[in-house]
Amino acid sequence: MTPKKKARIKVKARIREVIQNGGAATAKDIVKQINATLAGWVNYFRVGNASRAFSEVRDYTEMKIRTLLTRRKRRQKRSIGWRRWSNEYLYNVLGLYWDWKVHPLKNVEAFR
């Protein structure tokens, strides 16, 4: 089972809506709201082969958050801020959701 195009468009629209309605909320607060959306969406589609769709949504989310941060800093550059706000900043400092992969069981013997 892979997410259809309609599902990907819908989750992207939800992310865009959260960012647009963020107003004066801090970036961490906006990321918390985005995390709730992403966690539910990823957990629903995790069962199937969805790595391409996950990659598409992850890239879109990173771009939107970097664009938000660039606007808030009022930089007049055309870039989205890949150097200034690295993945390490997005995931470690802001706490963006990062559980896109299925993790193998660590203790298989406990389930036998």
Which labels suit this protein?
112 residues, mainly alpha, 58% helix, 0% strand, globular
Give an overview in words.
This is RNA-directed DNA polymerase (Reverse transcriptase). Pfam families: GIIM. With 112 residues, the chain is mostly helical. It has one domain. The protein has 4 helices and no strands.
Itemize the secondary structure elements and their pairings.
Blueprint: H1 5-20, H2 27-45, H3 51-73, H4 87-93
Helix pairs in contact: 1-2, 1-3
Organism: Candidatus Desulfosporosinus infrequens
GO molecular function, one term: RNA-directed DNA polymerase activity
Keywords: Nucleotidyltransferase, RNA-directed DNA polymerase, Transferase
Structural class per helix/strand content?
Answer: mainly alpha
Strand content: under 5%
The average pLDDT score comes to 84
Sheet of most strands? none
Number of strands: 0
The number of helical elements comes to 4
Rg calc: 16 Å
Shape: globular
As residue ranges, the low-confidence spans are none
Distance between the termini: 27 Å
Helix % is 55-70%
Strand-and-helix sequence, N→C? Answer: HHHH
Number of domains: 1
Brief summary of the model shown:
With 112 residues, this protein is mostly helical. It has helices spanning 5-20, 27-45, 51-73, 87-93.
